[in-house]
Structure formats: structure tokens, C-alpha cells
Amino acid sequence: MALASGLLVLILSILFVEARTQPNQFGKIPLGSQLSPISETRSWLSPSGHFAFGFFSQGNGFAVGIWVVGQPNNTVVWTANRDDEPVSFGATIHLSGEGKLFLRTEQGNENLIANVSEVADSASMLDSGNFVLFNGSSAIWQSFDHPTDTILVGQNLTFNDKLVSSVSSSNHSSGRFILPLQTDGNLVAYPKKSASLSVDAYWSSDTFQGDKKGLSLYLNNQGFLLMDTVSTKPVLLARSSYSCNNKTTIFRATLDADGIFRLYSHCLENKTSWIVHIEWSALNDQCNVLGFCDFNSYCTGKGTNADCSCYPGFAFNDPSEKFSGCYKNVTESFCTGTDEGEMYDVITMENISFERYSYSVLDTKKENCGLSCLEDCLCDVALYINERCEKYTAPLRYGKKDINASSIAFFKVQTTPAAPPMGQTVITESKKSLIVFLAIAFGAVTFLCFVIAISTFCVYRDRTFLYEKLSGIISLAGDFTLRSFSYSELEKATGGFAEELGRGSIGAVYKGTIPGGDRIVAVKRLEKVLDEGEKKFRAEITVIGQTYHRNLVRLLGFCVENSRRLLVYEYLKNGTLADLLFHSDKRPIWKERVRIAMEIARGILYLHEECQACIIHCNITPRNILMDDSWIAKISDFGLSKLLYPDEIRSSMALSQSRGHLAPEWQNNASVSVKADIYSFGVVLLEIICCRSSIEADVSAPDEMNLSSWAYQCFAAGQLDKLVKDEDVELESLERMVKIGLLCVQHDPALRPLIKNVILMLEGSKDIPTPPSIAPFCISS
Ligand SMILES: *[C@@H]1O[C@H](CO)[C@@H](O)[C@H](O)[C@H]1NC(C)=O
Ligand SMILES: *[C@@H]1O[C@H](CO)[C@@H](O)[C@H](O)[C@H]1NC(C)=O
Ligand SMILES: *[C@@H]1O[C@H](CO)[C@@H](O)[C@H](O)[C@H]1NC(C)=O
Ligand SMILES: *[C@@H]1O[C@H](CO)[C@@H](O)[C@H](O)[C@H]1NC(C)=O
Ligand SMILES: *[C@@H]1O[C@H](CO)[C@@H](O)[C@H](O)[C@H]1NC(C)=O
Ligand SMILES: *[C@@H]1O[C@H](CO)[C@@H](O)[C@H](O)[C@H]1NC(C)=O
Ligand SMILES: *[C@@H]1O[C@H](CO)[C@@H](O)[C@H](O)[C@H]1NC(C)=O
Ligand SMILES: *[C@@H]1O[C@H](CO)[C@@H](O)[C@H](O)[C@H]1NC(C)=O
Ligand SMILES: *[C@@H]1O[C@H](CO)[C@@H](O)[C@H](O)[C@H]1NC(C)=O
Ligand SMILES: *[C@@H]1O[C@H](CO)[C@@H](O)[C@H](O)[C@H]1NC(C)=O
């Protein structure tokens, strides 16, 4: 039945495509006019007959839009309410007697096509392809002001406008790519499922610096794609060169479904036939479009013949849809360490590239790279590139096969176990307990070795230089080394603790130079460590020393002598995030702030979920986040909470230090979990958004004092622009960031998202729920 009616619609639509459109002699469409997909008037034509407004077929029904009329196919250039379901043939379009333009569905729902408060007295389908509603001689609404995926000659794209690609050439719903004209004047293409940061950009007009800063994008009638700039001279982005032999030509620039921005010419050969030419393509290879293949899949092929495949060990989310991305196809996932060699194997692929956020980088040989991934339960892929081995966990995005990438990827895959004849579960269970036993035994042995190493080292600490050369570097598991210093060494390195870099809740930090390596370091003298003894201190330091992530400050060494406790960190010269945010002259632009937020979240993810022992930071504030030489954010002071704030005494001291960032559960004596860090991250995120401190007394209204509750008020009142005073921020991006921040600062820890979900939301690949309200200053007892 449905099939039959579908066929009927199809036949009707083919029959009526030409016959049922009417040229309009006067160019004006009077009030009271009406269109129906199956009546005489299915569309309103422009005077030339080249453009039509009305119903076109989409899927099993119809959509409303504007298209170029003619063979071989009509070309849709605009779609009304493009994400609505297609309508059936009982639907009608009305330019009503009251001057409103709307679509009435078969069920009787009325959807506005032109959403304006003024009323029209006439409408016109113009020869330019612009559909306009008039009140007298002034245009009160025009389709040119609401571009979808195409601009035509005479149409302007200005700040905060964007083109959004279609799903495919036959489905004009919003697709996977966007091309906004940013407020910085640059026209940039991004995958829609991203945070639109510079790492997500795959093409840009490069019109943002000096007098090349763009103002509006348009096409002139010679088919030149131009950007008006702050200087008088427009920038030419592309030109049409195909000679149409002086025949009627229509130019259009479209962000195609494959994410590539192209300039087309349509030349009128005879009355109804057009010859379509691609005059210019922003990119030639679909594989260079970031996000062309979704998570965990990679792009192969040249030009417009690109294809997506899953990485080894992954399977398509939707096997009928190659753009659907892939999931890790494993039946069991262990994190046990010893027996894995039997269950996992590596598959090698050359010339693979993807977005590189490795959690660990090793200086090792090619042969050991795959092995190192196999032995590391977090590792899904190791990439051997530039003579280093980088390890990654899924999901991976922006993957492609690139013959210019001299890389070797090792994918960890599960080997299919030889199926035992019966009692499989029993065998698996016993295997599991064996693994657990081996892991514990192995762990114990390692720990014992470590203790022996440490104590041996302590005994001989004061021996000769040679000895120090050999054993002064404690080598723990695998690739990690942490150096032990004597107090006098550090005293010398810092010139007697002369240059103080800063003073925090933990103690003062001094600049120093390690002799030998000439490496500049930051030496932190812990002043408030409880006397827990050396053993505990060393145990904690070991955990910290094993962390290695680009968004964490690296611990290089330590000193423990009598009651003295010092830590030696890498030195980051660009200061703290607080310096950056709270000084108006240093304040980074919006996109940089979004990037920094993402980096902090990645660091926290590593602490919470990726390093060997879960670390709760407990004290995330902009003062603990440092900026490195290339302005990458790195979290410091992690792993110290157990030394500094043991459960018994945590509140009083901690509270006095980082007012505003501490989760409410600290004050309620409830148990503190990773969700406490999420709260602190949320506060930091709001600070990053607003470039102000979470608690500020010097504000214009008392409501603004506490940042979280003020942010919620602004959010609830729909006045987000108040949060970013006199700064040009894309509202959509701002709203997303504020919502994430408000979710994180929920008083109930259970309502706060996990850090991995925070990252997905920041990246734009997960929808953000509307945050519940937050009670202002609610300190429950
Ligand atoms: C068009 O694509 C959208 C998004 O993928 C989908 O939801 C919709 O069903 C498609 N419409 C048709 C007519 O195929
Ligand atoms: C025209 O439409 C038909 C059927 O929808 C399609 O197979 C064909 O590829 C289209 N031709 C062009 C040039 O888009
Ligand atoms: C019409 O526009 C107003 C204001 O821009 C908006 O609030 C409303 O949701 C729109 N209505 C429809 C049906 O799109
Ligand atoms: C034109 O717009 C004005 C102001 O919105 C309105 O008062 C007037 O009625 C409109 N004219 C017609 C013919 O609808
Ligand atoms: C586009 O902008 C130009 C000036 O930059 C202006 O003359 C023209 O009217 C605008 N066109 C539309 C459709 O807004
Ligand atoms: C197009 O017209 C111009 C002048 O109108 C003429 O100089 C030119 O030769 C014509 N080109 C062709 C290919 O006919
Ligand atoms: C011109 O139109 C006729 C049909 O009217 C068609 O058969 C012919 O192929 C068209 N010529 C070109 C060059 O497209
Ligand atoms: C997933 O893995 C299992 C065994 O490892 C295999 O049998 C199955 O075919 C895989 N599924 C897909 C979709 O590749
Ligand atoms: C590889 O590099 C060469 C030279 O730099 C370049 O011409 C070519 O387009 C590149 N190939 C790909 C697939 O990027
Ligand atoms: C990558 O592809 C090139 C050929 O384009 C080849 O020479 C090279 O060996 C491949 N593999 C690696 C690891 O570079």
C-alpha cells in the first residue's frame, strides 16, 4: 500500500515537473495564492522561467524550496525548514489573505515558511533566484537572507551566517559540514560534529589578517567569488572561466554534501537544458575533508572517489551507511596486564594518519612499538612516527590513508579464541581468576623490587658521584624515569632558593637549573606536608611520576631528606591560566579559550581514567593550570591531595585556599569522588568563558558576585551575552560552553557528567542536556 502510493507520487512528480508550473507574467504573486504538489500550480516561476519556488520531491514526499528549472535535473538552491519531515501530496503552500506565507500539511498543521512579524501584500520569485515578500515596495523577507547550502549571484553571506551542507544530492536536510563566515572575517569549513576549533578546520578563505579581514562573501555576475574586506579592495577567492558562448548563465557556490565548497556555472544550451560545470573546488580530495569518515574509520581513495573503512578490530555502527563511524568490536575487555598476549594481537597498517592526541610517547624502536601497545591495557593503537611511538585510546577521528604520512600504525585486535567444545564460560572464568592472580603476584613483585630499589638507593645515597650516575635515576616500569635529588643539589640548582616563581597552597616554587642537562626546572618546596614518613611520600610520588600526558605538568624528580620534601617539575615559562584570564590585556580570544578548556578536560580524563591508578586532583583552579611555550594548558599539582588533604583534616585548610572551586561535598563531609574534580572543572570552565574569577566582590550587582549562580541566571533569562562583555562570540558556541559549565557545577555529584562525556560535549559530538537549576550559595549541612 505504502509502496503503491509512493510509486504514484513518483509518477505524478515526474509527470508534473514541467507541465504543472506556470510562468507568472507580472512577476507578482498576489495574496490568496496557493500551491499544491498535485495541482496545476506546483510552483511559482520567476519571469525568465529559470527559477521556481514550490514543492519538489524528496524521499517519498515533498519539500518546499527554490530550484533551477531544467534538464538534466532540477538543482535545489534553497530549502524551507529543511530539517522537517517531507510532506505528503495533500499538503499546500499558502500566501494567505492575511499576508502570511506558510505550509499546511495534510494533517492540518501550519508551519511558517517566512517567519516575520510584518505582513506582506505581495510576493515575487525573482530572476536572481531570490524569493521575496513585499509590503508596498519594501522587502520584508527574502530567501537570500536565510541561505542553506548555496549562495547565488546577488546574495551576501555576512558575520554569523553560515552554509550547511545537505545530507546528499537528493536529501536536502542539514548534512555533516558547515561553512560559517566567522566574526574574525575568515570563512572556514568544519565538520558539524566538532567544536569548530582550528584543529577541526579543513579549509579557510584566509581572510582575517590586516586589511584582508573579510566582511561579506558574494558572487558577482561574472561568476567571481569575492570577499568584501575592511579595505576597499575585495579578495578574489575563485573565478569562473568556462565560456558559455554568451548564453544565459547561472552561477552558484555550494557547500556540497561531501563537505567541499564548489563554484558552479549552469549554461543554458536550449530552452530547458543546462550544461553544468564545476568552475572551482576548495579541495580536490574528499579525504582531506576532516570528518568525511566518522569516528574510528578512515578515508581512502583519491578525488571524489573516497571511501570509508573501519580500522582493524572495529565494525561499522550502521553497516549500510559508510559515514556512520565504527565501534570497537570486542567481546571482553580485560585490563590485567599479563595474559593479554594470548588474547590480543596487533595488525599493522602503513601510511595512516589521524588526529594525534596521544596519552603517551615513547622513544623506542619500531619493533617494540606494537609490543608496547599490546602490553598496555589502555592502548588501542600505537603509531610509530618520526622515530617515536605514540599510544592512543579510541575513539580516533579524522583518519585517512595518506601516502605522504610515513607512519606505521599498530592496532590491537582481539584474537578469536579457539572455541572450546563445551563449558566455555567456566574456562573463561577460571582463566579470569588466573589472570587476576598473576596480576596481583606480578604487582607485588614489582612493588617489592621498587621498595628494594628505593631502600638500596637510600642507604647508598651519599656515596660517590659514580654511584649517583648509575642509580640516581630510578627506573620504574618500562619507559618512566624519575630522578631523586639531594637537598644540597637542589639548593645549588636554585641558587639557594633565590628566584621565587610563585607561592601556592602547597608551598613556594623556585626556578632552577639542573647541572649537566642545563634544563630549567621549577622546584616546589612542600611546606604543609603532614609527617607521613618517607614511604608514603615515595609511594605517592611514584604514582605521579608514572603520569605522562601532554596536558599534565611533568614531574622530573623529587627530594626527600629528613622532614624536607621537594618536587622538581618541568618549567613552563608562560605562567598560569589565572594570569592569562584575569588580565584584560592578555585575555585569549574565544576559540583559544575553548581549546584551553578542552586541554584541561583531556588532562583530567587522563588522571581519572587513563593512568594506572585513578588520581583525583581535588584542587583544580586556574592557578594550578600552567601554559607551556606553545600555550598548551597543563595541569599541575595533581596527585598531592593524599599528602596534603587526608580525609580527617581536609576541610579547613583546603577551604581557605581555593574558595569557589571546591565541590560542596567537601563541606558536607560526604565522600569525595572524581565528581569533585568535575565541579572544580565546571567553575574553571565558567571562569574561562567569562574571563573573571569565580568569586568577585567588585561587581556592578550583588547577583554577579558568585559566578556559577550568575551564569545560571543569565542562562535561564536567555541573556548569555552579558557573560562575555563587549566580546564577539558565536552564540551557539557560547551557549554550549555555558551549559556544560552549569552541568558540571551541579550540587548533586550524581548530576555532574563524567569527564569523558564532558569532552564529547566540548568536541560537539554529544548532545548537551539542559542543565537543572543551581541553588545560589547553597551550603547544606
Ligand atoms: C534525510 O536525512 C536525514 C538525516 O540523515 C534523515 O533523518 C531523513 O530521514 C532523510 N530524509 C529522506 C527523505 O531520506
Ligand atoms: C539526475 O537524477 C537522477 C535520478 O534522481 C540521478 O540518477 C542522476 O545522477 C542525476 N543527474 C545529475 C547530473 O545530477
Ligand atoms: C519565529 O522567530 C521567532 C524569533 O526569531 C522565534 O522565537 C520563533 O520560534 C520562530 N517561529 C518559528 C515557527 O520558527
Ligand atoms: C506594511 O507594514 C506596516 C508596518 O508593519 C503595516 O502597518 C501595514 O499594514 C503593511 N501594509 C500592508 C499592505 O500590509
Ligand atoms: C549585498 O551587499 C552589497 C554591498 O556589499 C549590496 O549592494 C547588496 O544589496 C547586498 N545584497 C543583498 C541581497 O543583500
Ligand atoms: C560574446 O559577446 C562579446 C560582445 O558582446 C563578443 O566580443 C564575444 O566575441 C562573444 N563571444 C562569443 C564566444 O560569442
Ligand atoms: C535541446 O533540447 C532538446 C529537446 O528539446 C534535446 O533533445 C537536446 O538534447 C537539447 N540540446 C542540448 C545540446 O542539450
Ligand atoms: C566482531 O568480532 C567477532 C569475533 O571477534 C566476529 O565474529 C564478528 O564478525 C565481528 N563483527 C563485525 C561486524 O565485524
Ligand atoms: C604528497 O606530497 C606531494 C608533494 O608534496 C604532493 O604533491 C601530493 O599531493 C601529496 N599527496 C597527498 C595524497 O597528500
Ligand atoms: C607509505 O607510502 C609510501 C609510498 O607512497 C612508501 O614509500 C612508504 O614506505 C609507506 N610506508 C611508510 C611507513 O612510510
From TrEMBL:
Q: What SMART domains does the annotation carry?
A: B_lectin
Instruction: Write down the chemical reaction(s) this protein catalyses.
Output: L-threonyl-[protein] + ATP = O-phospho-L-threonyl-[protein] + ADP + H(+); L-seryl-[protein] + ATP = O-phospho-L-seryl-[protein] + ADP + H(+)
Where is it mainly found? membrane
- Tell me where in this chain the Protein kinase domain is found: 495-774
Q: Where in the cell is it found?
A: Membrane
**Keyword Disulfide bond assigned:** yes
Membrane-spanning parts? 434-460
Gene Ontology molecular-function annotations: ATP binding; protein serine kinase activity; protein serine/threonine kinase activity
The residues covered by the Bulb-type lectin domain are: 29-146
Segment forming the signal sequence: 1-19
User: At the top level of its lineage, which domain of life is listed?
Assistant: Eukaryota
Name the protein family.
Belongs to the protein kinase superfamily. Ser/Thr protein kinase family.
Q: What is this protein called?
A: Receptor-like serine/threonine-protein kinase
